Amino acid sequence: MQFGIFSVGELAPDPRAGRMPTEHERIRAMTALAVRAEEAGLDVFATGEHHSPPYVCSAPATLLAYLAARTRRLILSTASTLITTNDPVRVAEEYALLQHLAGGRLDLIAGRGDTPDVYPWFGQDLREAGALAGENYALLHRLWRETDVDWRGRSRARLDGFTSTPRPLDGVPPFVWHASARSPETAERAAHYGDGFFADHLLAPVGHYARLVELYRTRYAEHGHGAPEQAIVGLGGQLFVRARSQDALSGFRPYFDRSPARALHWSLEEAAARTPLTVGSPDEAIEKILGFREVYGHYQRQLFTVDHAGVPLETALEQIDILGERIVPVLRRELAATRPPTVPPAPRHPATDGRQAQARPARPPAHPQARPPAATRTAEPARTAPPRHLTGASALPPGRVGQPHRTH
Length: 408
Hints:
Elements: E1 2-7, H1 23-39, E2 44-47, H2 60-70, E3 75-78, E4 81-82, H3 88-101, E5 106-111, H4 118-121, H5 129-143, E6 149-151, E7 159-162, E8 175-180, H6 184-193, E9 196-199, H7 206-222, E10 233-235, E11 239-241, H8 245-257, H9 260-263, H10 268-274, E12 278-280, H11 282-296, E13 301-304, H12 313-338, H13 353-357
Parallel strand pairs: 1-2, 1-13, 2-3, 3-5, 4-5, 5-8, 8-9, 9-10, 10-13, 11-12
Antiparallel strand pairs: 6-7
Helix pairs in contact: 1-12, 2-3, 3-5, 6-7, 11-12
């Protein structure tokens, strides 16, 4: 199981201090989050791609290349690469080169994005978003696996005997997750190729995302890649933790209230009860995150945003430290204790094996007695009903045992 953070890199004033960071400060803050994530023993840092204000990361490959030089162990990812408006030839070239620079510590989360204006800026039609996503990814998939590619499509110029360079490291392409907040077509695309599916897992009720994950698992098996529980699933999320739940709620409320995407729907308490938003004490965060397993099945990656809506850098860094010290060690132990042997591990490039073995250990928990060891707790409950904080989501049926998933 991989744990990490992601940042969409939006510029927003801190509602407590009233100050807006500069673009330079925000970009440097994103690099600081990634470095701290590695120091805290987390596995992944991911950055979004946006081409308009208030966002600052329009070139994820550039930021991730810089981070590749600043880190030794951290997996670097996009969140997401706009598969609709980027030229798949340039995606193949840039991220294969970055894969070499990072020693294999790279994967992609491919998606359509949520900014309609970007389509005409890059010469595309929003009405063709679905067709663009399908055609562009089909080409990208081939470019990383074939040489002398002939291509005829509607979205770009023809290719005749084209070979993308550099070739993927050791012949193994970056692992691709297909991200969606609402699109069954994206879940189908991930299942068709045997790739990973990454549920946006932010604003909607948990049951909404459960339906997408269940569709992906079902179609993954029907496409012949393995049993449903062998599909590769990742989840997003947002987290704000303090030692006491009351302090977490009061501390996060100013940021929640200034987030248009959140405050338009529910109060903070309603959002924390109905959606994946995790606000509370470390123990409450652990219980809620463990509850995701009851809804989605065992999955491979969990990412959190900790710097949304103007949360200042020092507060976001504190959240990463709490994750690394108080939350992730417990989650790793308890999830590993109940993980069936048929569930594949999170995908990694073979070149990272030695690097992972030499990685720095995570910081020891600040309060090692905060929760009892996994062996002293009750076994995993049967998936008959979701926990109370996940009300409204239908639990996934147990998967069938089948062939192991092809992992990197």
